[in-house]
Write a structure and sequence with these properties.
mainly alpha; 0% strand
Amino acid sequence: MTGILSKIRTTLEMIKWEHSIFALPFALTAMLLAANGLPRWRAVAWIVVAMVAARSAAMAFNRWADADLDAANPRTSGRAIPAGLLSRQFVLGFTILAAAVFLAAAAELNRLTLLLSPVVLVVLLGYSYLKRITRFSHLGLGLALGLAPAAAWIAVSGSLDARILVLTGAVTLWAGGFDVLYSCQDCEHDRAAGLHSLPQALGLAAAFHAARAMHLLALWALAWFAWLFHFGLAGWLGVAAVGLLLAYEHLLVSPRDLRRLNAAFFTMNGVIAIVFFAFVSADLWLRR
């Protein structure tokens, strides 16, 4: 029993399950808007299950696909597979199990979510290979998170409203921008390993400019989204709060000082997602 519990703890640490908070609030935002309030609890539960399962499959597959690369990188050599804490076979099996849970959750929601779920898996799992072929792999990660609000909208309504794609674009740019920043710490290793990223291709200073541009575009997309859905004061305050938090995130790190990168990446982006969801939820409640 102790061995099983230890393996579970190691698996949860490997997939960083707590980082589901990045995309989940945006999915819940879309869910509330699609239902014009709170949908049935059954739909809420299956959306959360689908989100967590999809992200778990994506993270586990990334660790499986990158095991050799992680072993060669001093920053990641302590991860579960390179450190010998989990076998590649176990991690691949976990990926398949998480993907199966995601497909089952999609089937419980509606027919369209089930039909589109394999496409979502291709995006989520395919991201792991993008850095081998393109410097714009960051946008692949961004899209993997950006699909969450569109998927949640379909899960509630059974159809797609083009307006929700604006939020997909905003999340894609937001997540892609913070992935550019996070990739800065592996710039030299990526060059040596033949991997592609904006920091590796352009240098740290230019990569920071690219991340700032992506976040400015994300903020503009959020403002467009707020206009499309006729946000009230609380909703617009949420957009403004995201802008201030993004500005603070960029003050935490610079091309010459990456020491607070984990705070900028993990803490601030989780806060951004939660704050936006909270303000939009308040806006919907105030308008009822």
